[in-house]
């Protein structure tokens, strides 16, 4: 058996990513180093949900944030409020919003070449934002690029944390894999998770291929000592699998990352 590709995406989306990688001829092991946990609705959060129709735009940063938003609408809005423009960082987030809410969603155009905050911020409708009220639906922590940039463009931004990331140590066997570099590649789409996993990565691991979903993560990987980050065009299974194929095509496999 060949060395596996290590992935750390939690939940059902992790299963979808694993299936996509396996379909291209790779072995996969899941690190199970992070889970996502929805936050409760304190009074301030409930007030925001009840007044969500006061916002001109809602920007959603991840599929789990989109799921939390959909569940909030189920609790507080028998019918969806009108007059809101929805934006998503990435096609997976947009698909979750469309499937659960049935709304049209603004995403970076295909020619942008990536599913990132930077690509979303390049949209023409997110440039001049004077007097615009924008709700940013995200997890706890994380970088502040979206909110800060929208505010610099004149928007009144409210950031709403709807979930937290819970980190844990990989199993002892997987810690050894990380320490020894005994894997084909490591696939990571979160800066916080990359910093968490770097604790177990010795020199052999730092020399192995690392697949990341943005140039920002590649820059972080460089600072952490990873020698071979490969930037995918986004965080979708297709984008990550295509980057994986470029980094380490398994011998004899007929890899078609466009499928």
UniProtKB/TrEMBL annotation:
Q: What is its EC number?
A: 4.2.1.75
Question: Could you tell me which pathway this protein works in?
Answer: Porphyrin-containing compound metabolism; protoporphyrin-IX biosynthesis; coproporphyrinogen-III from 5-aminolevulinate: step 3/4
Q: Which residues form the Tetrapyrrole biosynthesis uroporphyrinogen III synthase domain?
A: 16-241
Q: Which UniProt keywords apply?
A: Lyase, Porphyrin biosynthesis
Decide whether keyword Protein biosynthesis is in the record. no
Pfam families hit by this protein: HEM4
Q: Does the keyword Electron transport apply?
A: no
Q: Can you name one GO molecular function term for this protein?
A: uroporphyrinogen-III synthase activity
Gene Ontology BP terms: protoporphyrinogen IX biosynthetic process; uroporphyrinogen III biosynthetic process
User: Which superkingdom heads the taxonomic lineage of this protein's source?
Assistant: Bacteria
Reaction(s) this enzyme catalyzes, per UniProt: hydroxymethylbilane = uroporphyrinogen III + H2O
- What task does this protein carry out? Catalyzes cyclization of the linear tetrapyrrole, hydroxymethylbilane, to the macrocyclic uroporphyrinogen III.
What family is it from?
Belongs to the uroporphyrinogen-III synthase family.
* Name the record gives this protein: Uroporphyrinogen-III synthase
């Amino acid at each position: 058996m060949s060395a596996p590709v290590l992935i750390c995406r939690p939940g059902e989306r992790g299963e979808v990513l694993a299936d996509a990688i396996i379909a291209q001829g790779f072995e996969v092991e899941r690190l199970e180093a992070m889970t996502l946990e929805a936050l409760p609705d304190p009074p301030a959060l409930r007030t925001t949900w009840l007044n969500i129709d006061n916002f001109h735009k809602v920007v959603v940063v991840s599929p789990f944030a989109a799921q939390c938003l959909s569940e909030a609408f189920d609790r507080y809005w028998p019918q969806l409020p009108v007059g809101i423009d929805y934006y998503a960082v990435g096609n997976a987030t947009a698909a979750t919003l469309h499937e659960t809410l049935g709304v049209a969603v603004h995403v970076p155009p295909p020619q942008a070449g990536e599913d990132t905050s930077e690509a979303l911020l390049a949209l023409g409708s997110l440039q001049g934002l004077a007097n615009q009220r924008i709700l940013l639906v995200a997890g706890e922590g994380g970088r502040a690029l979206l909110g800060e940039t929208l505010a610099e463009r004149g928007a009144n931004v409210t950031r709403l944390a709807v979930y937290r990331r819970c980190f844990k140590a990989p199993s002892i066997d997987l810690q050894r894999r990380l320490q020894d570099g005994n894997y084909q590649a490591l696939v990571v789409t979160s800066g916080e998770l990359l910093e968490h996993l770097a604790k177990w990565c010795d020199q052999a691991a730092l020399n192995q291929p690392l697949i990341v979903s943005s140039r920002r993560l590649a820059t972080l990987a460089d600072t952490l000592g990873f020698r071979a980050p490969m930037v995918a065009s986004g965080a979708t299974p297709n984008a990550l699998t295509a980057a994986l194929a470029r980094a380490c095509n398994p011998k004899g496999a007929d890899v078609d990352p466009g499928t």
